[in-house]
C-alpha cells in the first residue's frame, strides 16, 4: 500500500497536475481537500475533477463560518491592514487551511500534506510555518516549488495526462478569492505604471458606472463584531456577503498595492475587498467614539504588529495569541452603530452612536449648555507649559530656523 498525502486542492491547473505528479514522483495516494472559504465555486465539480485526475479521495470542507469567526473578525477587531492597504484576505485563509490539512492528515493516517504554492510567494511560508507549528512530524511537499516546470510545461504535462485545463489557466492573472477579498496579480499588472484594466475587477463596479444616487448603510457592532446591517441581525458570513455586494455595486473596495513580500520581493497586487474596507472603516469610527485617546494610540501600534504577523505567516504563535487577548479585551465597549455613505467609489462615515460613547455633547458644545469649565484651562496650560518655559529660558530655542526667524 502506498503512503497517503493530503493535498490542498483548488481545482486549478497546478493542483490538478500535482495529483498526478505526486503519484508519479513519490508514489503517494492523494487525498484532495478543497476548502470553501467563500470563493463561490462549483465544489462538486471540483471534487469530481480531483477523482478523475486520480485522487483516491476528494473531500470538500465548508469553512466559511470558521474563517469569519476565528480569523476575519479577530483581524477586523485588531484593525489589521497590511502596510495600511491590504485587508489580508488571502493571508488570513492560509492558517485555517493549514489547520484543516493537518486535521484531515491525522484523521486519514496520512504521513504528508501538500499545497500548490510556488517558491516565490508568501503563501508557502504561511502554509509551511502553520503546518510545522501544528504537526511538526508531518512531511510537507510543495510540488510547484519542486517540479521546476514553466507555465507552458505544466500545461503540456496536463495535456499529456489528459487533465482538463481550466479556462482560468488561459487567463493571464493569478487570482485568489475568499469572503474577505479577491487578490489579483500577474499579466499586465506586473508593470506598476499600467492602470489595472477593467477586466480584472469582478466584485466592484467601476465608480463611473456606479449608481448616481448615494446609498446609506448602518452597521451595528457588538464588542467590535459587526452583527447588524440596517438594524437587521445577520450571521457573519451573510453580513459579509451582503456588504460585498452592496459596496461593490457602488464601486467601493478597489486597492492597488505595491507591497513588500516576506521573501524580499516587491510585488504589485490588485485587491477587491468591498466588505472589508467598509467594515474596517466603520469599526475604526466606532472605536474613535468608545476608546480613550491612550487606548487608540496604543491599539494603532498593535494593529501594525498584528497585520505583520498575519502577513508573515505567524498566526500560530504565542505572540499572536497574546496580541489577540489584548485586542479582545480592548473591544469590550466597542458597541454601537455606524452610518456610512457609499457613492461612486467612496465610502464615508457620516454618523456614529453608542450607548457607551465617550463623546460628551455637554463638554464639546460651543452653544448653550456648555459644561466645560473654561476658567480651569489657564491653570492647566500654566502647568502643561512649565517644562517648555523652563527649558526655553535656560537653554534658549536654538534651532537654526528659530534663530533666523
Ligand atoms: N499578496 C497577497 C498575499 O501575500 C495575495 C497572494 C495571492 N495572490 C494571488 N493573486 N494569487 O497575501
Question: Would you kindly provide a written description of the structure presented here, covering whatever features stand out?
Answer:
The chain is an alpha/beta fold and 405 residues long. 44% of the residues lie in helices and 20% in strands. The protein has 15 helices and 14 strands. The chain has helices spanning 13-26, 43-53, 64-77, 89-108, 123-134, 143-146, 151-160, 236-249, 274-290, 293-311, 318-330, 361-364, 375-384, 386-395, 400-404; strands spanning 4-8, 29-36, 57-62, 112-114, 139-141, 174-178, 181-185, 215-222, 225-229, 232-233, 254-260, 266-272, 336-343, 346-353. Strands 3-2-1-4-5 form a 5-stranded parallel β-sheet, with helices on both faces. The protein binds arginine. Arginine is lined by residues 90-91, 122-123, 174-176, 183-185, 269.
SSE diagram, text form:
Blueprint: E1 4-8, H1 13-26, E2 29-36, H2 43-53, E3 57-62, H3 64-77, H4 89-108, E4 112-114, H5 123-134, E5 139-141, H6 143-146, H7 151-160, E6 174-178, E7 181-185, E8 215-222, E9 225-229, E10 232-233, H8 236-249, E11 254-260, E12 266-272, H9 274-290, H10 293-311, H11 318-330, E13 336-343, E14 346-353, H12 361-364, H13 375-384, H14 386-395, H15 400-404
Parallel strand pairs: 1-2, 1-4, 2-3, 4-5
Antiparallel strand pairs: 6-7, 7-12, 8-9, 8-13, 9-10, 11-12, 13-14
Helix pairs in contact: 1-7, 3-4, 4-5, 8-9, 10-11
The structure holds arginine.
Amino acid at each position: 500500500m502506498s503512503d497517503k498525502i493530503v493535498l490542498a486542492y483548488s481545482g486549478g491547473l497546478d493542483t490538478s497536475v500535482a495529483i498526478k505528479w505526486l503519484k508519479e514522483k513519490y508514489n503517494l495516494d492523494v487525498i484532495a481537500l478543497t476548502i470553501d472559504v467563500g470563493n463561490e465555486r462549483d465544489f462538486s465539480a471540483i471534487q469530481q475533477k480531483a477523482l478523475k485526475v486520480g485522487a483516491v479521495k476528494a473531500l470538500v470542507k465548508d469553512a466559511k463560518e470558521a474563517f469569519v469567526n476565528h480569523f476575519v473578525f479577530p483581524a477586523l477587531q485588531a484593525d489589521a491592514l497590511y502596510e495600511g492597504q491590504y485587508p489580508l484576505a488571502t493571508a488570513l485563509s492560509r492558517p485555517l487551511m493549514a489547520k484543516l490539512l493537518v486535521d484531515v492528515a491525522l484523521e486519514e493516517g496520512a504521513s504528508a500534506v501538500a499545497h500548490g504554492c510556488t517558491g516565490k510567494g508568501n503563501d508557502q511560508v504561511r502554509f509551511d510555518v502553520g503546518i510545522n507549528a501544528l504537526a511538526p512530524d508531518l512531511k510537507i511537499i510543495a510540488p510547484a516549488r519542486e517540479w521546476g516546470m514553466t507555465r507552458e510545461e505544466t500545461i503540456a504535462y496536463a495535456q499529456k495526462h489528459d487533465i482538463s485545463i481550466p479556462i482560468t489557466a488561459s487567463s493571464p492573472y493569478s487570482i485568489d478569492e475568499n469572503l474577505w477579498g479577491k487578490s489579483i496579480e500577474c499579466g499586465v499588472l506586473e508593470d506598476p505604471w499600467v492602470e489595472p484594466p477593467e477586466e480584472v475587477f469582478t466584485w466592484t463596479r467601476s465608480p463611473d458606472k456606479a449608481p448616481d444616487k448615494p446609498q446609506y448603510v448602518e452597521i451595528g457592532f457588538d464588542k467590535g463584531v459587526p452583527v447588524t446591517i440596517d438594524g437587521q441581525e445577520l450571521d457573519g458570513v451573510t453580513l459579509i456577503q451582503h456588504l460585498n455586494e452592496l459596496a461593490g455595486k457602488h464601486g467601493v473596495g478597489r486597492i492597488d498595492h505595491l507591497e513588500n513580500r516576506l521573501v524580499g520581493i516587491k510585488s504589485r497586487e490588485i485587491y477587491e475587498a468591498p466588505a472589508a474596507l467598509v467594515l474596517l472603516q466603520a469599526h475604526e469610527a466606532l472605536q474613535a467614539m468608545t476608546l480613550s485617546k491612550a487606548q487608540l494610540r496604543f491599539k494603532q501600534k498593535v494593529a501594525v504588529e498584528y497585520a505583520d504577523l498575519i502577513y508573515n505567516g505567524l498566526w500560530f504563535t504565542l505572540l499572536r495569541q497574546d496580541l489577540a487577548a489584548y485586542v479582545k479585551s480592548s473591544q469590550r465597549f466597542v458597541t454601537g452603530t455606524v452610518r456610512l455613505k457609499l457613492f461612486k467609489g467612496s465610502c464615508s462615515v457620516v454618523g456614529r452612536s453608542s450607548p457607551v460613547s465617550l463623546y460628551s455633547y455637554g463638554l464639546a458644545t460651543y452653544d448653550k449648555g456648555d459644561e466645560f469649565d473654561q476658567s480651569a484651562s489657564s491653570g492647566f496650560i500654566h502647568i502643561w507649559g512649565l517644562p517648555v518655559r523652563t527649558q526655553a529660558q535656560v537653554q534658549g530655542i536654538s534651532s537654526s530656523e528659530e534663530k533666523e526667524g
